UniProtKB/TrEMBL annotation:
This is Protein-glutamine gamma-glutamyltransferase. It comes from Rubinisphaera italica. The keyword Transmembrane applies. The gene is tgpA_2. Keywords: Acyltransferase, Membrane, Transferase, Transmembrane, Transmembrane helix. It comes from the Bacteria. The keyword Transferase applies. Its EC number is 2.3.2.13.
Length: 848
């Protein structure tokens, strides 16, 4: 049995460690260094544990530890070039320490180290991946961890037996110099066996019985029960913990300033002021909810679905606008700096509009103040009660909508807001969705003047359109309006800024596509249509999340446009934005979210991280055209295909869906809707019901007249009501917790418990004295119950046919109850035990 415990423990521990190494290796995506630990684990199990090359106090052990730290520090310094290396350096340090511990001479302390390293491996894995395979690995790890700790307890509880065994082996193998070695060596096994007492023992909370198969269904069932209970407790804590971090999607290239509202970490693409090409691709497979919205007709309040909204807006997809990016340098987009101040959006009454749509949004906590909205927006306001100011702000140039930064408290919760859109009655002539700038700042005639000036300069082959300025002398405006128009003109012309030397291939392709037809130059709308069709509908481009660069010497956009011809929305939008600039059309890239997932039961459109999208806005004829150049692809199909690698069958696909939607996809809004609000409502209803019942009962008993006795009556009624309840509660509590009360009193009054123990210990000592008088002494390593059974076996012939045969077991059981439970002895029991022990002594004396 001792050998079984040792072997099973070592095997369990190394399986646990191996599972954690495989998990962190797959999460990291590299074979080195964690998967190299597996062969070392096998070597340690079969050879190194018996022949350890290092000891804990060895100088080489210290040198190896210092070397591991230096290597990890060097890897951490590489994080200046590759941010991921900062996390991976800690991951690799765990592997290096694991290697060192595996080759050490092992005692219980070293086994604890391996357990701790395994747990740290799993913790780091959770920060490196969100794969559904991680969830299965965590469940398997939990079962193995509970199993290993249970066996570890048994292993530690048998240390004294293994020590006595090794001591006996050494003594047996010691031979006189004159005696032949082979003869003595054969007796070592017998001597070792005799050195181990063939009696059950209680060590470290485990009861070891040589006659029992300890490694059986009972242990496995117990471990399974503890695992299930641990999962249940973990899920409960997981569900009640607010998902305040869900809105803080990591973006390695983000250079954002801290947001004054409560925020944690960095923001998702669509909120960031700076985006590296490929950033959006990192979240296009993440189903974490970001935004929830419902649609209503503004006048009738009737709910609308997403299809009806798109029909009213004359669009193919809903595009929820986030950040506006206008400056491009070597694969990186950023916002342009502007001195213009935001203005308050009106909440206004739009009942005169027969087809106005009200959008009601609920946004998860985020790291910036930008709000998503479907354009155009006629009016908007905050609905969340935590905001003192319900007014939203909009930038006059970028049209970005932001939330005011004044909350009543530092709480972190979803942001609820609404916006009203008045759709145009007919589809635009250009064929693209369009909207105008805010009329309070700029008149349509002035915007047309800017567009005409830009087109005239482009047709004159002016390549420095972004440096020129529009002449507003022909426009009748006051001095303040002229200042605003100058700011707008500068902003729009900046959207023509293009490094033609960096993008020669893009410029050449644009000029080819926008060449005059029959010596007649294309209009701005025709140039937009040509470029949009080329990217989306020509069939030359395909959609993919593969970000492999084909030609690293080219700019990422040119590599996509001329070589790869495949990519995701960021590349399509970037290419169209820069090509439009080369064609003399001011343009900017927009990041946000597209379409979403419609939930019919709740009439809600759910926007998830995987719905992140990028598109283009072009300034043509004084209006902004909304262009989505990304070639057709099925979002849901791509999403399912990406995760099909995890699925061997339909049930595996269901597990993956559960992990994505109910573990990763848990959001604060979902918690509020499914847990917090129902719990708060139930608690409030229960409290109100109790208070109402109390008031009704009180009104029946207490006189309504305000006499001088009313206060006295109230006091009597309170006593009459509460006193019986207190008595009932006290009786029930005493019956349920009397043993704990007794233990508390024993702890408070140690002499009280000692006296009760002393009563029963006196009788058990008398039993031992009787046994000793008849030739049977209790050994120190034997438990009381084991000795009682040995007593029965030795004196079986004298006691088998008498009631005294059960006295040894009965007195031992009573001794246990008095010693460990503190059960007191009555006078009747004291007399009874004295009589039985005396009878036992007389029976044994007369039988000799």
């Amino acid at each position: 049995m001792i050998d079984q415990i040792t072997q099973v423990f070592r095997l369990s521990l190394y399986l646990l460690l191996g599972l954690s190494c495989v998990t962190i290796g797959l999460a990291e995506g590299h074979l080195y260094p964690h998967l190299l630990t597996i062969p070392l684990i096998v070597l340690a199990y079969w050879y190194l544990d018996d022949n350890p090359p290092l000891k804990i106090d060895s100088a080489f052990t210290s040198l190896f530890g210092i070397a591991a730290l230096l290597i990890a520090m060097w890897e951490f310094q590489q994080g200046r070039v590759n941010v991921e290396m900062r996390i991976l350096s800690a991951s690799h340090l765990l592997a290096y320490f694991t290697w060192i511990v595996l080759i050490l001479e092992k005692q219980s302390q070293q086994y604890w180290w391996l357990l701790a390293l395994a747990i740290l491996n799993m913790a780091v894995s959770a920060s490196l991946t969100t794969s559904a395979a991680l969830g299965l690995s965590v469940l398997l790890f939990l079962f193995l961890a509970v199993w290993t700790l249970a066996i570890f307890t048994a292993y530690r509880g048998t240390v004294h037996i293994r020590d006595s065994r090794s001591t006996s082996t050494i003594k047996t193998n010691k031979q006189p110099e004159t005696s032949p070695a082979p003869v003595k060596a054969k007796k070592s096994v017998t001597a070792v066996a005799n050195a181990i007492p063939l009696v059950s023992q209680v060590r470290g909370g485990f009861h070891f019985d040589p006659s029992d198969n300890w490694l059986g269904y009972r242990l496995i069932a117990s471990v399974g029960y503890i695992t299930i209970a641990s999962v249940a407790v973990g899920l409960a804590i997981f569900m009640i913990t607010p998902r305040i971090w869900i809105g803080n999607w990591t973006l390695p290239s983000g250079q954002d300033e801290p947001y004054s509202l409560p925020s944690f970490g960095k923001s998702v693409s669509g909120f960031t002021s700076e985006v590296q090409l490929g950033d959006i691709g990192e979240i296009l497979s993440n189903p974490t909810p970001v935004l929830y919205m419902k649609f209503n007709d503004y006048n009738s309040k009737a709910p609308l679905n997403n299809t009806e909204v798109m029909q009213r807006l004359h669009i193919e997809d809903l595009l929820f606008r986030g950040a506006v990016l206008s400056d491009y340098v070597s694969g990186r987009w950023s916002q342009s700096s502007s001195n213009s101040t935001t203005y308050s959006m009106k909440r206004g009454n739009f009942r005169d509009s027969t087809n106005a749509i009200r959008f009601r949004y609920e946004l998860e906590p985020v790291g910036r103040d930008i709000l998503f909205m479907q354009m155009p927006v006629s009016g908007a306001q905050i609905l969340s009660e935590s905001f003192e100011n319900k007014t939203l702000q909009q930038h006059p140039l970028s049209q970005v909508v932001t939330v005011t930064q004044g909350r009543r408290s530092a709480e972190t919760s979803t942001i609820q807001y609404e916006a009203t859109t008045i759709p145009s009655l007919e589809k635009s002539e250009s064929g693209f969705p369009e909207y105008e700038l805010a009329s309070r700042w700029f008149w349509p005639q002035s915007l047309q003047t800017i567009s005409q000036s830009l087109e005239a300069s482009y047709q004159a082959d002016d390549t420095d359109l972004h440096r020129a300025r529009t002449d507003f002398k022909s426009t009748t405006v006051d001095r303040r309006s002229e200042s605003n128009l100058t700011i707008l003109d500068s902003y729009i012309r900046n959207l023509l800024n293009l490094n033609r030397e960096q993008l020669p291939g893009l410029v050449e392709l644009t000029e080819k596509l926008c060449a005059p037809v029959d010596d007649k130059p294309l209009t701005p709308v025709e140039r937009v249509q040509k470029l949009h069709y080329y990217l989306r509908d020509s069939g030359e481009f395909s959609y993919t999340l593969d970000l492999t660069v084909t030609d690293p010497t080219l700019d990422p956009v040119e590599d996509f446009l001329l070589v790869r011809k495949s990519g995701h929305c960021e590349y399509f939008a970037s290419a169209l934005t820069l090509m439009l600039r080369a064609a003399g059309i001011p343009s900017r890239m927009i990041t946000g979210f597209r379409t979403g997932r419609w939930v019919e039961d709740t009439k809600t459109l759910v926007i998830e991280q995987r719905h992140a999208h990028a598109w283009v806005e072009a300034f043509v004829d004084g209006k902004w055209l909304i262009l989505d150049p990304t070639t057709y692809h099925d979002d849901e199909e791509n999403y399912q295909v990406q995760f099909s690698a995890y699925s061997w069958a339909a049930i595996r696909a269901q597990l993956v869906g559960f992990w994505q939607n109910y573990v990763l996809g848990v959001s604060l809004a979902g918690q509020q809707q499914r847990l917090y609000d129902p719990l708060r409502k139930t608690t409030a209803n229960a409290y109100n019901a109790i208070m109402q019942s109390g008031e009704e009962y009180q009104n029946k008993i207490i006189p309504e007249s305000r006499t001088r006795y009313s206060l006295y009556n109230r006091f009597l009624m309170f006593i009459a009501t509460v006193f019986p309840i207190l008595i009932i509660v006290g009786v029930v509590a005493f019956l349920l917790f009397r043993q704990r009360l007794r233990n508390f009193l024993d702890w408070l009054l140690p002499k009280r418990r000692a006296a009760r123990r002393r009563q029963m210990m006196v009788f058990f000592r008398k039993f031992l004295e009787v046994s000793a008088k008849h030739g049977l002494q209790k050994k120190p390593e034997q438990t009381a119950l084991e000795f009682a059974r040995i007593f029965q076996k030795k004196f079986q012939s004298q006691l088998i046919n008498t009631p005294l045969y059960q006295v040894p077991l009965a007195v031992t059981q009573a001794y246990y109850q008095a010693r460990f439970r503190g059960d007191p002895l009555t006078e009747e029991e004291i007399v009874n035990w004295e009589a039985q022990i005396q009878s036992l002594h007389q029976r044994l004396s007369t039988s000799h």
